[in-house]
Amino acid sequence: MNLSQIRLLVEDFHRSVAFYRDVLELPLGFSSEEMLFASFHTGETKIEIFSRQNIAEVIGEYNLPSGKQPHSKFLLAFSVDDIDERYTVLKDKGAVFLSEPHDRKAWNARVAHLRDPDGNVIELYRHPL
């Protein structure tokens, strides 16, 4: 597994993109208004901005009580060669998954999500599909 991205899960996508692009002057590699997603190239590991509400739907945090916000603020994304194999190995070791491996056609990737012991979200992905 290789750490590929640190994904910040933000409330205000446009304000966050403007901060990283205009204030920190990080080079914007890709941005999608439709997915509320942006990627900044910072060397080997990218920093990505992603709507907290959008990722909440993917990892199952969308059925929260009224007034509650998704609590995930960042996500570590690891590139793996075989999502299904890594899923099985980690599950056998006791990892608690939020989602089984599945294809995300809009992302052109196969992904699975789990939490670490403190509740931080980890994404395993294989790109492209």
Summary tags:
129 residues, alpha+beta, eight-stranded mixed beta sheet, 40% strand
What does this structure look like?
The protein has a single domain (2-126), classed as 2,3-Dihydroxybiphenyl 1,2-Dioxygenase, domain 1. Strand 6 and strand 7 (109-115) form a beta hairpin. The protein is globular. The chain has an 8-stranded mixed beta sheet with strand order 2-3-4-1-5-8-7-6. The longest helix has 11 residues, at 13-23. It contains 3 helices and 8 strands. The model has no long low-confidence stretch (mean pLDDT 87). With 129 residues, it is α+β, with helices and mostly antiparallel strands.
- Helix percentage: 10-25%
> What is the N-to-C order of secondary-structure elements (H for helix, E for strand)?
EHEEEHEHEEE
- Order of strands, widest sheet: 2-3-4-1-5-8-7-6
Proper CATH architecture: Roll
CATH class: Alpha Beta
Assigned CATH superfamily: 2,3-Dihydroxybiphenyl 1,2-Dioxygenase, domain 1
Summarize the structure.
The protein is an alpha+beta fold.
Write the layout of secondary structure elements.
Layout: E1 2-10, H1 13-23, E2 28-32, E3 37-40, E4 46-51, H2 52-59, E5 74-79, H3 83-92, E6 96-104, E7 109-115, E8 121-126
Parallel strand pairs: 1-4, 5-8
Antiparallel strand pairs: 1-5, 2-3, 3-4, 6-7, 7-8
